[in-house]
Task: inverse folding
């Protein structure tokens, strides 16, 4: 993907940031007013986006990452090469615990995850650093057919 694998070229990060920022504006968050956007780059080169969607029955709401993963699967892609998230929190806003596991399903330990604010990238992580010693599909090897 780039010379400094697993990190993508800067222009791709900028493209993902722009996509995440655009979809953040579409977030449905009438209760928390906390708008989140997510953009996934798959190895196909395609970008998939999602935003958080709240619900009057609060637990039914979904995170931006979940929406982006659903869009990725609907488009036929099955891998997360890069993930960019954006929110307007004062501090660095990272994926929630549930989304770390959701992302883990389609990511590699080295998959870069960029946590952004309105001003751009605030912090960069890898999948492994956000969810160390995680449980993934390979753990089910031999148990499922
Ligand atoms: Zn989440």
Result:
């Amino acid at each position: 993907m780039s010379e400094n694998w697993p990190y993508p070229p800067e222009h791709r990060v900028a493209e993902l940031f722009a996509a995440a920022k655009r979809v953040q504006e579409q977030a449905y968050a009438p209760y928390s007013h906390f708008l989140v956007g997510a953009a996934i780059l798959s190895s196909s080169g395609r970008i998939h986006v999602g935003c958080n969607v709240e619900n009057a029955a609060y637990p039914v709401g979904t995170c931006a990452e979940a929406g982006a993963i659903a869009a990725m699967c609907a488009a036929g892609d099955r891998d997360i090469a890069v993930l960019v998230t954006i929110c307007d929190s004062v501090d660095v806003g990272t994926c929630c615990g549930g989304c770390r596991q959701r992302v883990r399903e389609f990511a590699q330990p080295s998959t870069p995850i960029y946590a952004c604010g309105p001003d751009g990238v605030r912090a960069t992580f890898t999948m492994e650093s956000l969810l160390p010693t995680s449980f993934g599909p390979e753990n089910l090897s031999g148990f499922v057919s």
